Amino acid sequence: MPHVRFFHLLCFAVLAAFFAASTAQAHHGWAWATDEEFEITGVIQSVRLGNPHGEVTISVDGEDWVVEVGQPWRNDRVGLTREMLSQDREITVHGHRSAKEGERLVKAERVVIDGKDYDLYPDRES
Q1: Does pLDDT of 94 surpass 70?
Q2: pTM for the model
Q3: Does domain 38-119 sit in CATH 2.40.50.1010?
Q4: One Pfam match, by short name (predicted)?
């Protein structure tokens, strides 16, 4: 019977790993966002840069939206710095919004600050 118990434990471990990986992928990939292109302009309220990606909260018509910008290396590659993402600065975001009804979350492909484009995902059309 030890073999049966081991088999059950192994199955449980595999299923747990699968669900943990699929949950992480659902958010950190593009699967959680719509396929439609989306554009929004607002004023930066707060910034949190770092891994797994940065987040910029912007105010749009009195509502806060969270914008996922790139990972630190991706932001650095395009020249998007913390100073550019300073509070009270206007930003236009091109990307994809959350597919979850009512969630004010956008994954940025490209941002525009002071008329300059910062293309975080140059291989994606935005």
Answers
A1: yes
A2: 0.74
A3: yes
A4: DUF6152
